[in-house]
């Protein structure tokens, strides 16, 4: 069989191949396989034995069968000498295999056909490659993106697909041989060269660039280039895949433009929002607060937007809300939360506190949910007004209103320009008898009863300027008038000059004043009458007393009887005390009745002082007290004063000093102090408690009433002395410590004329009191 086969094969001539390269079969005229070689078994999957039970039709693909049968028929009938076809077998197991069959026929000597001889080549892998190539070919030709194959050495196009050519305005064939750089604008050549180098190095690149069309116009492209390498890794060519991204760029540009537009709009919007005086806060539906306008930032004490663009939750640790009644507002009811729930807020007044600080404001919140065109909620928008100041002034206003309306004084607000009454309190309504409305239709001049218009105008002007207190008369609605005390003050309220007048009905006060005045006049008249009575009475008593004293003195001189002399001496002492008392009462009532007059005369001070000390020396000696006189050298020889009254004062002080001193000494001193002379009478006596310093100068007052008995006296001496010193131009004062002595002192002005030792003429001495003395 083998030989036969070989022989048969040799008869096939050009079709002969090495035995195992091709399958060879003998097929009967009925199509039954007669003989087959190993290769054929490999191709079909059937063993030679299995094939002997099969026909070629049975293992031929149904689609190819008819053509094969027909060709076999024609071969058998001698129409064709041989044929070749490509067809599919169905292999054992069911899969198909492509083969090329070359059929011929063996005839006997009578030319009758004996059997077919077929040579079969397995073309499955070739067929596959062809199909793949075809697919690629189709893709290349019909791809919507441009593809180009580029020669690595020359950087020219080997082949481009129709899209690539069309995009650049060429026919595909036209582009073959063009340089890559020809499709780049000149200003991109440098870039393109660099790119090519980079691609060859990396093997792949994706980049955006610009390509030229044949007509010179350009368009943006996205290029992907891959270097194709052979089995040994040598680069063969580059494949470039290019997409025209004009549309994308346009879209990008549009997008960019839209972005910019939106940004511009937002910026404008922000400027508008920031110029609002009210606060505006925007939150999204998730409770993220993402916009605050400037006013809102400032109102809440934030420095920048970054500080407060956060979740509403985050503010819980910073702020707390409460109602104006102090009731805490829970987080769920915070203004934004209420809006997010769909509530509408209209001027909801709430107090906001910054936890842990003194910061606290009252805000009025309004707001609503912003919705899109379909009515879907988008954002919560909150408007905030800081009404802290308004609330405070409202409160203050209420307080003032309360004060004003509870005041018994009339309060009027008067417009400075025309005197119109702008507001009035309840007291005004009561006092004038007009209703509140009626009052507001009047001017202040309608209420005035007393003064002329000019006077009123002047008063208004002064009051406006620096405030004014004055009294006048006002008229009631019924025409009656009443006296008023007005306190008026100018002020600017809401840019308008106003006078605020507080007016008091002083009818009662006027009545009291009148009564008081009358009472005082009556009292004064009575007091004067009393003093005059006393003065004249003392005078009347004094005259007989002088006679009385003279007579006693005379009797003492002539009567030597010791018993009678004792009685006479008693009588004389009593009479002298009485005389002194009358003198004191007389002086005192004269001073009270303003009838004591002071004269100024020039006299030698030292003489006068020595005389006084001489007069008191007996008294001092009796009590074994030292009595000293000290006149400072600076004291002038002559002074101008009322000698008699000065002596009276000093005698008074000296006699007190001696009277109230048991041990030690008494001293009179004079010093020159500035423009005056200071007289001092000091002692080492019982002293005076400090709380009695003022009392002792009052008439009929003594430190200790029981001392009257021990020391005698009326309590008039110091009262008279102080008045006299005052008339002499000084003030009598005391310095003392109980048990440590006292010092009485006063300073009288030194008459300028007496200061010089030039003796002025007596007539030139000023004598303000008239010089007459009783
Ligand atoms: P009189 O001496 O007549 O009582 P005065 O007016 O002269 O009245 O004095 C009033 C009182 O002042 C005295 O009673 C005495 O209590 C007190 N007084 C005056 N001078 C002295 C003095 N030098 N030392 C202590 N007490 C004095």
Account of the 3D structure:
With 774 residues, the protein is an alpha+beta fold. It is 41% helix and 28% strand. Strands 12-11-17-16-15-13-14 form a seven-stranded antiparallel sheet. A five-stranded antiparallel sheet has the order 2-1-5-4-3, sandwiched between helices. It has a five-stranded antiparallel sheet with strand order 7-6-10-9-8, with helices on both faces. The longest helix has 52 residues, at 507-558. The protein is rod-shaped and about 235 Å long. The chain binds adenosine-5'-diphosphate. Adenosine-5'-diphosphate is lined by residues 656-657, 660, 683, 685-686, 688, 696, 702-703, 707, 713-719, 742.
Question: Which segments are poorly predicted (pLDDT under 50) over 5 or more consecutive residues?
Answer: 1-19, 755-774
Structural class: alpha+beta
In total, the number of strands is: 29
Number of helices: 25
Strand content: 25-35%
Distance between the termini: 201 Å
Bound molecules: adenosine-5'-diphosphate
Topology:
Layout: H1 2-11, E1 23-28, E2 33-36, H2 38-44, H3 48-52, H4 56-59, H5 62-76, E3 82-90, E4 96-107, E5 113-122, H6 124-142, E6 146-151, E7 157-160, H7 162-167, H8 172-175, H9 189-202, E8 204-212, E9 218-229, E10 235-244, H10 246-275, E11 279-284, E12 289-292, H11 294-300, H12 305-308, E13 319-323, E14 328-329, H13 335-340, E15 345-354, E16 360-371, E17 377-386, H14 388-406, E18 410-415, E19 421-424, H15 426-432, H16 436-439, H17 444-447, H18 453-466, E20 468-475, E21 481-493, E22 496-505, H19 507-558, H20 562-592, E23 601-604, H21 605-622, E24 626-631, E25 638-641, H22 643-659, E26 665-673, E27 676-683, H23 707-711, H24 717-727, E28 733-736, E29 742-749, H25 752-755
Parallel strand pairs: 24-26
Antiparallel strand pairs: 1-2, 1-5, 3-4, 4-5, 6-7, 6-10, 8-9, 9-10, 11-12, 11-17, 13-14, 13-15, 15-16, 16-17, 18-19, 18-22, 20-21, 21-22, 23-25, 26-27, 27-29, 28-29
Helix pairs in contact: 19-20, 20-24, 21-22, 22-24
The structure holds adenosine-5'-diphosphate (ADP).
The site of adenosine-5'-diphosphate (ADP) has 19 residues, from α22 and α24.
């Amino acid at each position: 069989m083998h030989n036969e086969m070989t022989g048969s094969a040799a008869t096939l001539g050009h079709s002969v191949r090495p035995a195992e390269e091709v399958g060879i079969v003998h097929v009967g005229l009925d199509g039954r396989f007669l003989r087959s070689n190993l290769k054929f078994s490999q191709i079909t999957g059937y063993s030679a034995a299995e094939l002997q039970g099969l026909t070629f039709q049975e293992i031929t693909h149904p689609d190819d069968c008819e053509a094969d049968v027909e060709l076999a028929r024609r071969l058998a009938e001698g129409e064709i000498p041989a044929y070749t076809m490509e067809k599919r077998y169905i292999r054992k197991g069911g899969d198909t295999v492509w083969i090329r069959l070359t059929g011929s026929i063996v005839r006997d000597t009578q030319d009758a056909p004996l059997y077919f001889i077929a040579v079969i080549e397995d073309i499955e892998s070739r067929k596959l490659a062809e199909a793949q190539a075809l697919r690629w070919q189709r893709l290349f030709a019909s791809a919507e993106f441009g593809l180009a194959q580029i020669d690595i050495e020359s950087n020219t196009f080997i082949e481009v697909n129709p899209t690539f050519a069309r995009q650049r305005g060429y026919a595909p064939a036209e582009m073959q041989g063009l340089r890559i750089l020809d499709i780049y604008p000149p200003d991109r050549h440098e870039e393109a060269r660099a790119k090519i180098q980079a691609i060859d190095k990396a093997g792949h690149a994706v980049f955006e660039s610009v390509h030229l069309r044949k007509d010179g116009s350009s368009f943006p492209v996205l290029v992907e280039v891959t270097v194709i390498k052979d089995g040994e890794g040598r680069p063969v060519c580059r494949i470039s895949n290019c997409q025209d991204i004009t549309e994308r760029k346009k879209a990008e540009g549009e997008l960019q433009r839209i972005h910019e537009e939106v940004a511009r709009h937002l910026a404008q919007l922000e400027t508008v929002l920031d110029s609002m005086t009210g606060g505006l806060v925007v939150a999204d539906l998730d409770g993220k607060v993402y916009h605050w306008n400037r006013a809102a930032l400032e109102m809440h004490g934030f420095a920048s937007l970054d500080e407060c663009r956060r979740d509403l939750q985050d503010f819980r640790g910073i702020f707390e809300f409460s109602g104006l009644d102090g009731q805490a507002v829970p987080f769920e009811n915070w203004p934004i939360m209420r809006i997010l729930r769909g509530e509408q807020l209209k001027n909801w007044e709430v107090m906001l506190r910054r936890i842990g600080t003194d910061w606290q404001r009252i805000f009025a919140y309004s707001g609503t949910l912003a919705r899109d065109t379909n009515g879907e909620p988008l954002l919560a928008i909150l408007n905030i007004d800081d009404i802290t100041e308004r609330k405070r002034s409202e409160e203050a206003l209420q307080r003032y209103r309360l004060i004003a309306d509870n005041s018994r004084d009339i309060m009027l607000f008067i417009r400075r320009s025309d005197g119109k009454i702008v507001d009035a309190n309840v007291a005004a309504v009561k006092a004038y008898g007009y209703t509140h409305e009626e009052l507001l239709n009047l001017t202040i001049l309608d209420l005035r009863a007393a003064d002329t218009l000019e006077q009123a105008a002047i008063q208004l002007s002064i009051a406006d300027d620096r405030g004014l207190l004055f009294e006048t008369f006002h008229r009631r609605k019924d025409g009656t008038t009443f006296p008023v005390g007005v306190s008026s003050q100018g002020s600017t309220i809401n840019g308008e000059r106003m006078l605020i007048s507080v007016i008091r009905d002083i009818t009662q006060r006027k009545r009291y004043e009148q009564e008081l005045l009358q009472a005082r006049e009556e009292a004064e008249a009575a007091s004067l009458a009393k003093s005059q009575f006393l003065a004249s009475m003392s005078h009347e008593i004094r005259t007989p007393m002088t006679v009385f004293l003279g007579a006693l003195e005379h009797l003492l001189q002539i009567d030597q009887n010791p018993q009678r002399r004792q009685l006479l001496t008693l009588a004389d002492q009593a009479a002298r005390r009485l005389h002194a008392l009358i003198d004191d009462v007389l002086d005192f009532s004269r001073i009270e009745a303003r009838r004591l007059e002071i004269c100024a005369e020039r006299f030698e001070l030292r003489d006068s002082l020595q005389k006084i000390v001489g007069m008191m020396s007996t008294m001092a000696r009796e009590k074994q007290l030292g009595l000293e006189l000290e006149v400072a050298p600076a004291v002038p020889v002559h002074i101008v004063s009322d000698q008699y009254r000065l002596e009276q004062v000093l005698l008074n002080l000296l006699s007190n000093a001696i009277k109230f001193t048991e041990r030690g000494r008494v001293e009179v001193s004079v010093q020159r102090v500035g423009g005056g002379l200071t007289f001092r009478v000091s002692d080492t006596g019982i002293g005076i408690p400090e709380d009695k310093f003022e009392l002792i100068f009052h008439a009929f007052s003594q430190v200790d009433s029981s001392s009257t008995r021990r020391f005698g006296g009326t309590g008039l001496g110091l009262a008279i002395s102080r008045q006299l010193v005052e008339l002499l131009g000084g003030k009598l004062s005391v310095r003392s410590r109980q048990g440590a002595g006292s010092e009485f002192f006063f300073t009288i002005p030194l008459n300028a004329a007496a200061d010089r030792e030039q003796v002025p003429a007596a007539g030139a001495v000023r004598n303000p009191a008239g010089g007459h003395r009783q």
